[in-house]
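re: that chain from earlier
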Amino acid sequence: MDVITMALAKGRLAEETFSLLEKLGVDCSEPRNPGRQLVLWDRKSSIRFILVKPSDVPVYVDHGVADLGVVGKDTLMESGRPLYEVLDLTFGKCRLCVAGYADRDSIPVTRANFRVATKYPHIARSYYDGKGQTIEIIKLNGSVELGPVIGLSDVILDIVESGSTLKANGLSILEEICDVSARLVVNRVSLKTKRERIQWMIDGLGREVRALP
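^ sequence. v structure.
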């Protein structure tokens, strides 16, 4: 039996994925309790799990170290890697948005370039290129909302779930780019060489997702 390797981001996305896989009869007891281990197994089903950082999931799948992965749409878009996006798993829902001060036009701008603070420089560049707008990207890894508040940037481009952090800092959603949720991605070569087993997982997860309330 072919070994199937699945890359998962630690945390909520992994736990939600385990719940779906268990409905297919996959034993997720070991990956649910990994301790310090990073490679976990359901040996009966010949399924191997690797637990990695969210941004690394597309990397492992693209290089064929993992056959499948579960990753947020935002992370997938930012990676720009040529993977098959085969299923919307529907959990981890949020929105990718541009946010800032609603009255930004009344705020005097003393610099020439329009600045966008974001964790997603590739998405930001693509989005504003599509609008024909020249921007300066400020890459931040945390507390992106601070950008407009202290004058580092004009706006931010980030994921928004409830919007409470934006509201608490006096910011508003100015533009919605797209909806975000967890996606099942597959390595292109693996889909050919291990097609039967991978298709079984795709079909089974798809049935379980459609059955969710």
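The two ends are 34 Å apart (CA to CA).
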